[in-house]
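From: lab user (bench 3)
To: helpdesk
Subject: output format question, protein + aspartic acid

Hello, I'm new to running complex predictions and I'm not sure whether the block I got back is the full result or only part of it. Here's what I submitted:
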Amino acid sequence: MKLIGAFMRTRLHTKILVGLLAGIPVGLLLGPRAAAIEPLGQLFIRLITMIVVPLVFSSLFVGTASLGDIRKLGRVGVKTILYYLCTTAIAITIGLILGNIFKPGDNINESTRQSLLSSYQADAEARIELADQKPGVIETLTRIVPRNPIESLAEAHMLQIIFFALLFGIAVTLVPGQRGKPVIDFFDAVSEAMIQMVHIVMKFAPFGVLALIAAVVGKFGIDILLSLLKYTLIVLAGLLLHMTFIYSSAVRIFSGLSARKFFRGIQPAQLIAFSTSSSNATLPVTIECVEENLGVSEEISSFVLPLGATINMDGTALYQGVAAIFIAQVYGISLTLGDQFTIVLMATLASIGAAGVPGIGVITLAMVLQTIGVPLEGIALILGVDRIIDMCRTVVNITGDASAAVVVASSEGDLRKDRSPGEEKDLA
Ligand code: ASP
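Helpdesk reply: Thanks, we reran it on our side. This is the complete output you should expect:
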């Protein structure tokens, strides 16, 4: 009883961490039967995903309307996209360098290769088919302009929602007199209410996280992890390197914020990203952490973060670099420098327009492999450990978005530095 009382009094992100850690023994204990509690986790994912569209639309609209400065908007847009492109290119390069040095595919013997290919063949084919249906780069770019904004909202097309909210926000400031103000006030209240909804939903987070982690652990075979251990470790090392070195340097150099404060502030979002494997679902929590704990203004965070959840996936890009090399090595194909440059380019482009949902990285990987002539069926080789890697790369993806928000906000004088470490606001 005392223990429960003490648990109830701890801070929310400690509770989420406890839920996450408790999920491991529960999953080990229940094994595949842990799938029975997965709906509890799915319920949590649905609850936070439910907030994404109204939150992004209302806060971005209000942010743009209150900014009322188109030039600043353009500047923020250019800085954000440049930051995203640079960090993504660095991430894939790290993945490729590690893949070339440590050669993850060299120690896979013929029997492991055959068993992996046959076990995951059907799954791989389904994903390749999805990759075939994905629009090309030009089409993705034209589709940013919605034909019907209501449809964009209903279907949660993030780039279209961003485009419409920005234009709507600019347009409302051009309405003469005070006539646009009620609209701004209305959406301001909607955005506030959505933030309150995040607080309510997050109370359920520790239980949702426990169920999600237990289900993953219960389903997971340790044998598959062992046969792909080298590949998995190389991806994880790369992700860790990118996160600790690149982001903390960027945040430190461009904003003066210490790495410790940055990582402490973003921790609740990282835990949710790890458990849900979805940058999109994590978005409301990322926005909350970046504004409340790191002091980024709403105008900046409401633009930079939703954009990042869709177009910036550094963790995914890094993993694609290692995975492409791994698959090529297993098939005995040597990739030229030109091929590797194509990987950098394609992985960067492929991430644009791919929503931050679980497993999307494998689908865009198929697009990357196609352009360098590596057999697509090779995807079957890595699917067994993909969920674990997805959890980790999603953490890097949202951390990258948060670092962009800090860097861009600081360059615009929109970063409140009056919070000292340890002063993070609890989300509950
Ligand atoms: N799950 C990742 C995300 O939501 C995308 C991926 O790599 O599959 O950011």
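A quick orientation on your result: Residues 277-279, 313, 316, 356-361, 390, 393-394, 397 surround aspartic acid (CB under 6 Å). Let us know if anything else is unclear.
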